[in-house]
Amino acid sequence: MLVDFHGDLPVVTAPASNEGEHNGTNDLNAVAVHAVAKPAPDVIYPDVPYEMADVEVQAEPSPTNPKPVYPPAMQRRQLQARFAVYFVVDTSGRIDPTSIELPLVSHEEFLNSVLVAMEKWTFEPAQIRGRRVRERVKQPFTFKLK
Fold it and tell me: What does the alpha-carbon distance between residue 14 and residue 35 come to, in Å, rounded to a whole number?
């Protein structure tokens, strides 16, 4: 499977038919999309989730984070998807599972693939004035047939 970048949006691609590798891996480089930071607030609340624009250093995903797999059933049916998932990265660099906001999509297999990968993700936590804080992150995903 290949990855194609359209702007900052990571795209999971797969062959349109049963050709190509089927080893359960892909080349998606999932990264958080960040806005320009605003000036830091006077008081830092490490337990309150900050928006991306409110932190000085955004949460950075580990380069070893597993990538979502293009669901084989969706690939066979030649179905594609594009959506964003919101979540909070806590001060330890893990995703708070209670914070995950999933969109409504017509085929849950795409969401399930993303959730399986996200369970193992780690980040370098966001910071304000050198202190780790919780950050709400938006992660777009595109599953696209080649």
Answer: 30
